[in-house]
Specification:
The chain is of the alpha/beta class. The two termini are 13 Å apart. It is globular, with a radius of gyration of 16 Å. The chain has a 7-stranded mixed sheet with strand order 2-3-4-1-5-6-7, sandwiched between helices. The chain is 33% helix and 25% strand. It has helices at 21-28, 82-87, 104-114, 135-146, 161-184, and strands at 8-14, 34-39, 50-61, 67-72, 92-98, 122-127, 153-155. Helix 1 (21-28) packs across helix 5 (161-184).
Length: 185
């Protein structure tokens, strides 16, 4: 297991700029989340005022007193050097995607590849999906399946605590299953 300590888990949130990483961590953190937001100078990529430059950080304490440390990566490629640093010792990864983005499939493949699908437990959360277009989740799943990758994919509103906790729960189940497989081997 890649947990930080036996009763601590490090979960990494990643995805392109504007996918909702900071919002997701803020939605579930037990304490005020730490953010390294700076003024966004790349409005062409994503029209938002601020963007993460280094990382986001929050934490939640589970009923068994385990601590889940939540880290968010910057989404801009120019800050990509932070990705392996933040991935180090992560028990799992939650990839967040913007369902309205025209390059959704490319973003899926890029982040799944960059963060090692198959090497680390991973869950995909897709936000901003129009209600009439939930079939895009199946399209994403099929794209991964074509590459021999099977990952849970959820429609998720990162502003909603329950939606983000569902992603965390799904990831924790994968981590636990991987731990059980490791013990059996």
């Amino acid at each position: 297991m890649n947990a930080v300590a036996s009763n601590e888990f490090k979960i990494l949130f990643t995805g392109p700029m504007g996918a909702g990483k900071t919002t997701a961590i803020t939605a579930i953190s037990d304490h005020e989340a730490v953010s390294t937001d700076v003024v966004n100078t790349d409005l062409a990529q994503c029209n938002k005022e601020l963007t993460t430059a280094a990382l986001d950080y929050g934490q939640i304490v589970l009923p068994d007193n385990s601590c889940v440390r939540l880290y968010g990566t910057p989404g801009q490629e120019r800050f990509r050097f932070m990705w392996p640093i933040l991935l180090n010792n992560a028990a799992g990864v939650i990839v967040l995607l913007n369902g309205e983005h025209p390059e959704l499939l490319e973003h899926l493949e890029h982040y799944v590849d960059a963060f090692g699908a198959g090497k680390v437990p991973m869950v995909i959360g897709v936000g901003r999906l129009p209600a009439e277009d939930l079939g895009r989740l199946e399209t994403l799943a099929m794209r991964l399946e074509e590459r021999g990758i099977a990952l849970p994919i959820f429609d998720a509103d990162v502003r909603q605590q329950d939606d983000v906790l569902l992603l965390v729960d799904a990831l924790l189940c994968q981590i636990e299953a991987d731990d059980c497989r490791s013990m059996e081997a």
